């Protein structure tokens, strides 16, 4: 979700950009390469727990997986097909992956 930036440089999560939609890797690449390219390298990346801006955590790690919505804006993440094919333990944990699961870059907070 892109937020409106105030002159102070802080994001206002209460002011969504018209047409908010899930962020794709193409948009993330544009933001990193253009909009955020001049930010200092030690700028902390922080994740909000929800769209209202309740609680925040520093970005810690990521995974490549598949996402499937369960409710309107929340869902589950599943391993890639190649990971399932190579790991019997994963297949036991995830015996059925929904047909609508799609490739996703999954970001995890530190805490």
Automatic annotation (TrEMBL):
<protein>
    <submittedName>
        <fullName>Uncharacterized protein</fullName>
    </submittedName>
</protein>
<feature type="region of interest" description="Disordered">
    <location>
        <begin position="1"/>
        <end position="21"/>
    </location>
</feature>
